[in-house]
């Protein structure tokens, strides 16, 4: 009977001696002391994706404010490093229609990049869609054909379907 409590105590003590699991990503704030050796591989992939995208969107700001979220600060830190190496511009992909908020968010991004040591010009931060390969022409044609209104009238030169005079 006495063996069971001793064995249980030994298991509890030994399980507390295990090393914490290594992280591939950083914790929410700051750096992890226990970084995986694979992390550098993923950092290169993320930087390549950021280089193609170069955008900041609504999720990088606090809701209804011009202040950056923690995610936005992290993204702009990485974008600043990419801008320093390769140049380019940051695309603001904002869905809001509030012109004052858009101007304030643009100013926030510009200030952040200036504090990071980037020479900000009038084209460094601009409203635009995120970068990427875009839409193939074949796909655009299919979408346009599907969205086009279907005409049931017979073609001819009379009535509403008549061709405009030249």
Rg over C-alpha atoms, rounded to the nearest angstrom: 28 Å
- Highest-level CATH class of one domain: Alpha Beta
Helix content: 40-55%
Average pLDDT value?
Answer: 76
Oligomer: single chain
Query: Which band does the percent of strand residues land in?
Result: 5-15%
* Beta strand count: 3
Would you tell me the structural class of the helices and strands? mainly alpha
Which sequence of strands runs across the widest sheet?
Answer: 1-2-3
Distance between the termini: 106 Å
The biggest sheet, with number of strands, parallel, antiparallel or mixed sense and barrel status, is: 3 strands, parallel
Order of helices and strands: HHEHEHEH
Q: Nutshell version of this structure?
A:
With 166 residues, the chain is mostly helical. Helices cover 44% and strands 6% of the residues.
Write the layout of secondary structure elements.
Elements: H1 3-15, H2 39-53, E1 55-57, H3 70-86, E2 90-93, H4 99-115, E3 125-127, H5 137-147
Parallel strand pairs: 1-2, 2-3
């Amino acid at each position: 009977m006495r063996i069971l409590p001793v064995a249980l105590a030994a298991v509890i003590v030994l399980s507390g001696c295990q090393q914490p699991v290594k992280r591939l990503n950083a914790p929410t704030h700051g750096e992890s002391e226990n970084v995986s050796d694979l992390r550098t591989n993923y950092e290169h992939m993320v930087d390549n994706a950021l280089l193609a995208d170069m955008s900041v969107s609504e999720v990088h700001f606090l809701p209804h404010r011009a202040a950056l979220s923690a995610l936005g600060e992290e993204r702009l830190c990485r974008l600043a490093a990419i801008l320093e190496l390769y140049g380019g511009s940051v695309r603001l992909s904002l869905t809001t229609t509030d012109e004052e908020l858009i101007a304030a968010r643009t100013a926030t991004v510009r200030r952040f990049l200036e504090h990071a040591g980037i020479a900000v010009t009038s084209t460094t931060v601009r409203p635009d869609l995120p970068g990427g390969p875009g839409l193939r022409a074949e796909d655009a044609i299919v979408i346009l054909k599907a969205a086009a209104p279907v005409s049931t009238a017979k073609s001819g030169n009379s009535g509403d379907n008549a061709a405009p005079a030249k």
